[in-house]
């Protein structure tokens, strides 16, 4: 592997250029921007480095599917996405969100960490490996979707109509971080997600607020309905919500105990003096990894501009995401939410639910996972940090767990990568490191 | 007065042109638009029709002050404002909000009803009267402020430094409507107002919503805080809020019984099937006129655009107005609100309060009010409808009640004038009617 690593170092500038070019495409799926550009750009890169590459249509944005067939016995797949989150609030960025500027070894760009950096690192690894050895030691598939940031709403349909393309012995999941001490984070599971909008409606248009005395206010309806969903101790009050949430196993508890979590750094970075409910230690980690959430992502009603407009809002909307743990079923949660609202006198509140995804987890003892652990050790010289459950979400259940495919995720982010937030970034050094890890994983698995 | 009425009819087109020209100035005080243009436009019109006219500076927008001195013994003042509400939501307008289009005898424009139509009717009346008789039979003052739509925040200071200009035997208040049966509405009081923003703050920027498990969510904090302010039966829960709210007197109850309120038409217009709490009859009218309110005018937090951004908001803001009844003191309410939030564990919620105004009311038996009633009868041939309390607000207490000046309001709106809402409008016929009433009032009072 020394030859491959040397090749990677020698082509550092080119690999950085590839990544910046990709990052500059503003592929914001939820706003339908840059989708065609990003997918065709990827397709031509896959072809350029010797793979097949197809743009496979879905009801939404297409999946870019690429194969590097070596004739080997093993097949691994890489799951990634070419879409990114919206870039607002703009005023908080230190540079243009899609300029892909490099400042002090840091590439700052929407999508750099989530997850264009990780995807490009894998592509560069394939390139370097085949340039040095002529061919790969196993078969590789890339499944790169364009709707992860809006809940992978069409991936299930894709999986159903392309089940042959999904098959693999191991799936390398989209992302992960490099810890401050240089060790890799390996992710073995992911929470599920359900995203809903709650909508309250009153009169047929906004009215003068003097009518607040006698006309129902959509904003108040929404506030009262939201208030019934979660109490101030963070208990979700929807009947049945916790029924499928399992207690921690002994093995999971032990793994949590071993897992480092940089509490002080995180608080400082977020400008906070405490975590929710004053949590710390294992209770904090358990909440983050193994407890479901109910999060208001946005609320919008009435006049929100400057100054004081005295208006009675006719509409109020809240966007809410639920992060789900294994065995919670998003469709069941929607049903429970409807029942809860009805039971509490909020039959008038409309629910618009997106198709969710279930949580998934892989056994850290799986032999192929063990090989990835070996590769991570070889590249970094350090024991990787195992994260049993990613507190974010992804379609791991649909793509892997339902077919019994084990998954492990790693990538090129850092503990301050600001995913989904202004000034998203990765370190160039972590990017180079991630290319080497992807190459080493291919080598070890073969 | 026949000569004056004939003169008014003969100059109808000119008076409509004056109004449309004024309406086309987008004098949105809360957004600092069109203020200088509107105030200087008014100043030159006052001068053109024979008055003095000064633009008197305040810390905020200036007051346009005009006098028509006749040497008569009585002095009346007109209180109006040249500012208007913001025009959004734009997509709900049938024409440009400031184009001042006339469709089927209706002038549609932001500010037409509130209250440029009423102000112009008074100015036209002065013009017609002086053109016919050479001079007015009493002294007239116009106090036209530019910040009514943002709570008359600097009017108190103006009143303090120009107390001579405020003195009058009777103040004609800004506005009122012409009922569907052609009778005038005369307003004898107005609710007070307090406008506040509540602001919840969490981390130093919006975060990926996976952090919802462990980081405080500003939107949830705000929802929980708001929920403590009012229950679902519309009871405001702020301790002491109702302490100064008086029971209805017998006279008030009788007046309420006599007062018509078009329940069915109002419901149909707003697209509703019932009023708040299923109220109707005298209970509905009492709530509208004599009960204080707590109304969410707007809420803003996190991502409110299209699609599903999974974000944990770092800020959440609510705009709230309280409509106050006689003896409630806005400064006291702010204090009670702070105490309430603190007592309920919301010390972290910031309150930004604007200077409010107190409610005011005038005795319908006052001799000068009786003369206005006579004038209204003469113009319309019908008994005017007395509204003891305007459910909207205005600085009537500061400008009049604190000096013992009685007030009565009338104007050119209609029961579907859509003040503060899209498609604000007045009927041209009501405008003409309003010019005649203003002229008749001057005549009767002298």
From TrEMBL, chains A, B:
State the UniProt keywords alphabetically: Hydrolase, Metal-binding, Protease
Q: Which Pfam families match?
A: M20_dimer (PF07687), Peptidase_M20 (PF01546)
Q: Start and end of every Peptidase M20 dimerisation domain?
A: 189-344
Reading the lineage from the top rank, the first entry is Bacteria
SUPFAM superfamilies registered for this protein in UniProt? Zn-dependent exopeptidases
Q: Which InterPro entries match?
A: Cyt/Met_Dipeptidase (IPR051458), Peptidase_M20 (IPR002933), Peptidase_M20_dimer (IPR011650)
Kindly indicate whether the keyword Hydrolase belongs to this entry: yes
Q: Which Gene3D superfamilies match?
A: 3.30.70.360, Zn peptidases
Can you name one GO molecular function term for this protein?
metal ion binding
One GO CC term, this protein: cytosol
Q: In its UniProt record, which GO terms are filed under biological process?
A: lysine biosynthetic process via diaminopimelate; proteolysis
Q: What's the protein name?
A: M20/M25/M40 family metallo-hydrolase
Q: To which species is this protein native? A: Paenibacillus thalictri
Q: What is the lineage of its organism?
A: Bacteria, Bacillati, Bacillota, Bacilli, Bacillales
């Amino acid at each position: 592997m020394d030859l491959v690593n040397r090749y990677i170092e020698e082509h550092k500038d080119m690999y950085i250029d590839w990544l910046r070019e990709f990052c500059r495409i503003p592929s914001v799926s939820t706003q339908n921007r840059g989708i065609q550009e990003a997918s065709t750009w990827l397709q031509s890169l896959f072809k350029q480095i010797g793979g097949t590459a197809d743009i496979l249509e879905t009801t939404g944005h297409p999946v870019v599917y690429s194969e590097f067939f070596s004739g080997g016995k093993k097949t691994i797949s890489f799951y990634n996405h070419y879409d990114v989150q919206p870039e607002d609030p703009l005023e908080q960025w230190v540079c243009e969100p899609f300029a892909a500027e490099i400042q002090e070894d840091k590439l700052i760009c929407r999508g750099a960490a989530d997850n264009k950096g990780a995807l490009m690192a894998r592509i560069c690894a394939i390139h370097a490996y085949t340039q040095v050895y002529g061919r790969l030691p196993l078969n590789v598939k890339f499944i790169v979707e364009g709707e992860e940031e809006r809940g992978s709403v069409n991936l299930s349909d894709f999986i159903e109509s392309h089940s042959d393309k999904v098959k693999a012995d191991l799936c390398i999941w989209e992302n992960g971080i490099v810890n401050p001490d240089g060790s890799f984070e390996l992710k073995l599971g992911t929470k599920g997600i359900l995203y809903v909008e709650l909508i309250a409606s009153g009169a047929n248009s906004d009215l003068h607020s003097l009518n607040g005395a006698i006309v129902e206010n959509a904003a108040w309806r929404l506030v009262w309905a939201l208030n019934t969903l979660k109490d101030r101790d963070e208990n979700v009050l929807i009947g049945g919500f916790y029924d499928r949430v399992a207690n921690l196993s002994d093995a999971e508890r032990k793994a949590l105990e071993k897992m480092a979590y940089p509490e002080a750094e995180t608080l400082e970075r977020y400008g906070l003096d405490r975590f929710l409910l004053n949590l710390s230690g294992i209770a904090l980690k358990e909440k983050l990894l193994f407890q479901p959430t109910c999060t208001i992502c946005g609320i919008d009603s009435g006049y929100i501009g400057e100054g004081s407009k005295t208006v009675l809002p006719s509409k109020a909307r809240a966007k809410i995401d639920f992060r789900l743990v294994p065995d919670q079923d998003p469709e069941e949660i929607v049903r429970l939410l409807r029942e809860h609202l009805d039971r509490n006198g909020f039959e008038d509140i409309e629910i618009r639910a997106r198709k969710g995804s279930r949580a998934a987890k892989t056994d850290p003892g799986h032999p192929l996972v063990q090989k990835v652990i070996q590769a991570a050790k070889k590249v970094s010289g350090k024991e990787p940090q195992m994260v049993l459950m990613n507190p974010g979400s992804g379609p791991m259940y649909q793509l892997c767990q339902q077919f019994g495919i084990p998954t492990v995720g790693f990538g090129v982010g850092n503990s301050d990568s600001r995913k989904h937030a202004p000034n998203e970034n990765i370190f160039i050094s972590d990017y180079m490191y991630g290319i080497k890890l992807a190459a080493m994983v291919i080598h070890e698995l073969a």
